[in-house]
Design a protein that fits this description.
Helix content: 25-40%
Strand content: 15-25%
Order of helices and strands: HEEEEHEHEE
Number of helices: 3
Largest sheet: 5 strands, mixed
Structural class: alpha/beta
Number of domains: 1
Shape: elongated
Radius of gyration: 25 Å
Number of strands: 7
């Protein structure tokens, strides 16, 4: 009896599930990039030789306050910028110095209702005067936020080249 080899047949690959997964990944990374951009706004951070990297692994609430110079560049009128959710997207919210207290108190009370501790990350431009950073520190104290962290570049400031 003579055996015949099986007839070759074309295999097809179902691409629909792969396309669905890729679309989900694209949407996820678009949203995640938006969240990361808020914490990495263009601010000239100061340099600190004793700066240490802080890899935070817990998922507690965190408030990032950017203290930067105003658009005019006037050192006496800084901008206090926080990321806020308007129901559709993440937007920059400019706070007045008097509003910083109320904002941090609201975030701290919300976290205490949830049984968590708030962490405040202060990202201050190196050209902002200390008295403006003190506004945020005072607001943290009044809101009972004890976990306060400053963002800084590690190492020495590079020498200016002419």
């Amino acid at each position: 009896m003579k055996f015949r080899p099986p007839k070759p047949f074309a295999m097809t690959l179902n691409l629909a599930p792969m396309v669905d997964v890729m679309m989900c990944l694209i949407v996820f990374f678009l949203l995640a990039t938006r969240l990361v951009d808020v914490e990495h706004q263009p601010i000239l951070l100061p340099y600190a030789e004793a700066a240490a990297t802080d890899d935070r692994h817990d998922a507690g609430p965190e408030v990032v306050i950017n203290v930067r110079l105003s658009k005019s560049g006037d050192p006496d009128t800084p901008e206090f910028v926080v990321a806020d959710w308007d129901g559709k997207r993440i937007v920059e919210r400019l706070l007045q110095p008097a509003d910083v207290d109320a904002y941090l108190a609201g975030r701290a009370s919300q976290a205490s209702r949830d049984g968590e501790r708030v962490r405040c990350v202060i990202r201050a431009d190196r050209h902002v005067m200390y008295q403006h950073v003190e506004v945020v520190l005072r607001a943290c104290g009044l809101s009972k936020i004890s976990d306060v962290v400053f963002s800084a570049n590690a190492g020495r400031e590079p020498e200016a080249t002419p």
